[in-house]
Amino acid sequence: MDGLLKEAEANAETASLDDPALESAINFLGSKLYTEDLSLQIAEQLDKSSVSMPKILATIAYKLAERSDTETDGDIKEENLSILGMMALNEVFTIAEETGMNTTSADISAAFKHMIVLFAQDQGLPQEQVQSLANAMAQVNDEQFAQEAENMPDNLDEMLPDDDIPVAEDTPEETPAQTQEEMRA
Question: pTM for this structure?
């Protein structure tokens, strides 16, 4: 899971090049945590427990990411919201570990699943869809998922094609005449 978090940070660096709002949100997140000492307040609250609490950690991270997005007037590209969420989650887990809380990769998996459910709720999905999503997420074994994530190569993003996957509405429809001419060429 550590590799995935590092990959999220690397993706954030390249994503911020084409998403200034994401860069602003990341800077705001860092400022809140480390300049305004929010990390110390979080640590004080978490220091009271040595048992990992993925849902509480997820909620803290979600609220941090949400506040960072709000500071950019919600201008972060939708595809980059997960990067911001992963970065906030990484920071919260780092703070938790520094307080002595025992966390595992499975805890990170459980926390991220909870963040997805929180996001679905905030997006206004009907309660039955949110419950269906939560039930589907509960089917994912956190320990197995964490193990599979650990087995993924750290450079997985470099192995993926750079081209966007065309969506049916984005691709021009071919006419039979075009297809025949292409075949002759």
Answer: 0.69
